[in-house]
Design brief:
The structure holds two protein chains of two kinds. By secondary structure, chain A is of the alpha/beta class. Chain A folds into four domains: about 20-300, Rossmann fold; about 300-365, no CATH class; about 370-525, no CATH class; about 530-563. Chain A is built from 15 helices and 17 strands. A six-stranded mixed sheet of chain A has the order 1-14-13-17-15-16. Chain A has a four-stranded antiparallel sheet with strand order 2-8-7-4, with no helix packed on it. In chain A, helix 13 (about 430-495) packs antiparallel against helix 14. Chain A starts with about 30 loop residues before the first strand and ends in an 8-residue tail after the last helix. By secondary structure, chain B is an all-alpha fold. Chain B folds into two domains: about 15-165, no CATH class; about 200-320, no CATH class. Chain B has helices at about 15-35, 40-60, 65-70, 75-85, 90-110, 120-130, 145-155, 170-175, 185-190, 205-220, 225-245, 255-260, 260-270, 280-300, 305-325; strands spanning about 140, 165. Classes of the chains: A alpha/beta, B mainly alpha. Chains A and B meet through strand 15, strand 16, helix 9, helix 12 and helix 13 of A and helix 1 of B.
Chain lengths: ~575, ~350
């Protein structure tokens, strides 16, 4: 750890009670194999993987059971060996209470791996490495579950200044990264070395909040070893001040490098990229050991007799996992994640997934219901703590009044929903709920607008088509009559052969010219706005045309004959 | 129904904010009582009772939960500020009408807590000084601090001449404005012991009490430094500048800062979050604007003090100022150019 590392501050932030001690007293334990595993196919940002197995099939541990759907997606694997008993809709670990397609596996108890093989990333192209990681199901384990292979791209510059490893873990109660760093520092740093090579990064900064001295010490040792091996000092462990949300990717990048990556822009364009330490560990396991992502460390904390971290296979039900920690009788809710940003679970039957960093058991005593909401007095406390430098009370005002355009003008979509504003609000206004509401309304309106645009486009296209058909008919008719006239003229010419006058020649030439024109017109008719399009747009147009043709085909029986 | 994240909140409430504001007023009130007698306490009690009653009635009429809002303390803050800006020997109905105007009209008819575009206490002050200029200008001199005549002034028939006088600020303005008097600032301020050493005998200590309370509010992070500093600095610079230009016609900064309601305004009135600006730069402009207008009205206007009018004028401008002073959001300030 360098004393010379200059740190920057991010605006705002809060210091809630951290409550991290309870779950760090004991080392990581491996959660026992459950009787059945319910593995959702959709566990990351991006496309939903296609199921690759069917009920009745035998699978091995680490076998791919969901194939990535396109590049913005990530594969899913069997967490253990056994039999697929169903591929069906099951309740998802999300507040909405919606169900999604899951592969249900009955373990055979042998826990038999597929053939594992390290991936020679040095001899592979960056594209091949990314494909490998996509198929190994590696996604961001900080909670956002963004497919990691998409971030392992040095961007337009081909190299990176700084690779940031996020070990800040700023949310109260959560300690999964803390214990991972304490116990498996070497693997994390090995992961960082691999990532650094892929990204051609100058240096690696590992940011850890200063309330985790054990983790910092362990990581320091591992980093020193790696630096010694490499003969440089590229990897540095940096202790950052404990202040929520220091573990937000953008906040940590700011603290460590002073760079602010604006909303909607790629951090690689600013020469920096940020990964969670758990992700670095997963990348190490995938590339060095050939093990796809099938488990993770999960903190079980809150209203339980013994809080602890477990290594849990994806698909294990939260109920089974919680039972290991003996939830107290007055428990009334399960939160996935921490108390600041965590999601309320619709029940305890939902499975542990890649996004599950913590299972927080709540009670009325631990998380008392908020007092009744008072009007906003514009005290500005929310603006003081906002790490995105927003004016939360203005966004609240416009969200509440449903003036969504104004809310957007006040940068609603820069809000990271960290909850600092609601945490300090003296009027106890659930501010983040208002922002979520406004965002979802805006999204819904955008979808509606898109649908309206498509409808309008269709209507315009229909007008265009009708016009074209009319012209075609007219051209055909013209051609027909022209041909008739020509025949008649020819017959006439036959009859009075020698009397071919110059007028008749002129007439013939005129007719021929008209026919030429009609032919040319027929060929020329096409919508003008498709004249110069990029290949992607052309592909899109082609796809849309294909869909339209399909729909027209389907609609044919229902249409009047003359349409 | 369980709430969404965040699941635990910092212990904070509107009530705690308001109570700490009241607490911060105590040193100023103590000095007030020491120099000018207990009449101010009577006025505070009168204003508080009226405010709470008016608040309860309005909440009931508006169909709001009465007990929840009555306990928030905001009506008490308004009441205390009215009592502290009105003359302590004002007749009881003057205070009552002022408080009713503030609570009923300026607060609840505009939508209640958090919705009022104008500072309610300043609405009350402006209204009453326009309607009853002479009653609003009768202040007790130092030494007339016996409770009996004061109570008589508040509740009895008015025989005030014996114990009242204009405030130092008012007296100076009147003297300087009288055409034939050819008075100078030094001449006026030196003419009477009641002008004290800095800003009027006794008043300078009350102002010091408010300053102390303001420091407490800053320490508690209920207010930020922007408004008090911008207000006091602007008043200091402008009065200092004009005093340098012509010390016979313009009173200096120490008098301006420690007289009238300047200190109370700097920490307790200008800083009202509901009706003021909220962005850091907006706060500076807002408070500086109030100070400027205050000085103009004090120096050239016809009223004893200009703070109320200045505040109301800037209240109108606050949303506009806020709109044009939005701070840059994360990633948009001194934006590092993406590498070429």
């Amino acid at each position: 750890m360098s004393a010379l590392q200059r740190l920057f501050k991010f605006h705002g932030g809060v210091k809630p009670a951290y409550n991290k001690e309870a779950s760090t007293r004991l080392p990581i334990a491996v959660a026992p194999m459950p009787a059945s595993l319910v593995i959702p196919l959709h566990q990351s940002i991006g496309g939903m993987p296609r199921p690759l197995v069917a009920a009745g099939e035998k699978v091995l541990k680490g076998q791919r059971i969901g194939g990535a759907d396109g590049n913005v997606s990530s594969a899913i694997h069997a967490s253990t060996s056994g039999t697929v008993v169903a591929v069906e809709m099951r309740l998802m670990p999300h507040t909405s209470g919606l169900s999604a397609l899951c592969v249900v596996i009955e373990p055979d108890g042998r826990d038999e791996w597929i053939a594992r093989q390290a991936f020679e990333f040095r001899s592979a192209s960056p594209g091949q490495t990314r494909d490998f990681l996509r198929d190994a199901g590696v996604v961001g384990l900080g909670g956002a579950v963004f497919p990691s292979h998409l971030k392992l791209n040095a961007g337009k510059h081909g190299k990176l200044d700084t690779l940031v490893l996020n070990g800040a873990e700023c949310e109260p109660f959560i300690t999964c990264d803390d214990v991972l760093m304490r116990e498996r520092a070497e693997a994390i740093v090995n992961g960082a070395v691999i990532m650094r090579e892929i990204l051609s990064a100058e240096r690696v900064l590992i940011g850890i909040e200063d309330n985790k001295p054990e983790a910092i010490a362990a990581m320091d040792v591992a980093a020193a070893e790696a630096n010694c091996k490499a003969g440089d000092a590229a990897i540095e462990v940096v202790s950052v001040p404990t202040r929520y949300p220091a573990g937000g990717a953008k906040q940590l990048i700011r603290v460590l490098t002073g760079i602010e990556v604006p909303h909607g822009e790629r951090s690689t364009d600013y020469g920096v990229q940020c990964f969670n330490v758990g992700t670095a560990y997963a990348i190490y396991e995938a590339i060095a050991l050939g093990q796809p992502l099938i488990s993770r460390i999960v903190t079980v904390a809150g209203n339980v007799a013994q809080a602890r971290n477990y290594e849990v296979l994806f698909g294990t039900s939260m109920k089974d996992l919680m039972a290991l920690c003996a939830p107290l009788p007055d428990s009334d809710r399960i939160v996935m994640g921490g108390p600041m940003m965590g999601l309320l679970m619709p029940g305890d039957s939902v499975p542990v997934v890649k996004a599950t960093n913590c299972i927080l058991v709540g009670s009325q005593a631990l998380f008392p219901p908020p007092p009744p909401e008072m009007p906003c007095i514009r005290c500005g406390d929310c603006a003081k703590v906002c790490p995105a430098d927003l004016q939360p009370f203005e966004m609240y005002w416009f969200s509440r009044a449903k003036i969504f355009g104004k809310a957007q003008e006040y940068n609603l979509f820069d809000c990271i929903e960290c909850g600092c504003c609601a945490y300090v609000c003296p009027s106890r206004i659930p501010l983040v709920d208002y922002y979520r509401f406004a965002k979802s309304e805006i999204w819904a309106r955008e979808v509606e607008k898109e649908a309206a645009d498509v409808a309008r486009e269709r209507y315009e296209f229909r007008l265009l088509r009708e016009e074209r058909e009319k012209q075609e008919k007219a051209a055909k008719l013209a051609a027909k009559t022209a041909a008739g006239r020509e025949k008649a003229a020819a017959a006439l010419a036959e009859a009075v052969k020698p009397a071919a006058t110059p007028e008749e020649d002129a007439k013939k030439a005129l007719i021929a010219a008209a026919m030429e024109r009609a032919k040319a017109q027929k060929q020329e008719v096409h919508p003008e706005n498709t004249a110069d399009l990029t290949p992607e747009q052309q592909a899109e147009v082609a796809a849309i045309e294909a869909r339209r043709a399909e729909i027209r085909e389907m609609a044919k029986p229902h249409l009047r004959q003359d349409d | 129904m369980l709430n969404n994240s965040p699941y635990f909140l910092k212990p904070a409430s509107v009530q705690s904010v308001m109570l700490r504001v009241l607490l911060a007023l105590l040193p100023g009130i103590a000095a007030y009582v020491w120099f000018f007698g207990a009449a101010i306490l009577v006025q505070i009690a009168l204003a508080s009772v009226t405010a709470l009653a008016a608040e309860a009635v309005m909440l009931h009429l508006r169909g709001k939960p009465v007990m929840m809002f009555l306990g928030d303390g905001s009506a008490l803050v308004t009441a205390w500020l009215i009592a502290l800006t009105f003359p302590p020997i004002a007749p009881w109905w003057l205070t009552v009408v002022g408080v009713l105007a503030a609570i009923v009209v300026a607060k609840h008819l505009y939508g209640g807590l958090g919705q009022n575009p104008f500072n309610p206490a300043m609405v009350a002050f402006a209204l009453m000084i326009v309607a009853y200029p002479s009653l609003m200008s009768q202040w007790p001199g130092v030494g007339f601090s016996d409770l009996a005549p004061q109570l008589n002034a508040i509740f009895g028939p008015r025989q005030l001449d014996a114990i009242t006088m204009a405030t130092p600020l008012d007296a100076l303005r009147t003297a300087l404005h009288t055409p034939e008097a050819r008075a100078t600032v030094a001449g006026v301020l030196g003419s009477d012991a009641s002008f004290g050493n800095i800003g009027g005998k006794g008043w300078e200590w009350v102002a010091a009490g408010y300053f102390l309370g303001g420091v407490y509010l800053l320490q508690q992070r209920i207010i930020t430094w922007h408004m008090p500093v911008a207000f006091l600095a602007t008043l200091l610079v402008i009065s200092g500048g004009f005093s340098l230009y012509d010390a016979t016609r313009f009173a200096g900064p120490s008098f301006q800062l420690f007289t009238g309601g300047a200190m109370l305004a700097a920490f307790f009135i200008v800083t009202d979050p509901v009706s003021g600006c909220t962005t850091p730069r907006g706060k500076l402009i807002f408070a500086a604007g109030i100070a400027l207008l205050t000085w103009v009205i004090r120096t050239f206007g016809a009223y004893p003090d200009g703070i109320a009018f200045a505040v109301l004028l800037l209240n109108i401008a606050a949303p506009l100022i806020d709109m044009y002073t939005q701070p840059p959001v994360f990633g948009h300030k001194n934006k590092p150019a993406a590498r070429p």
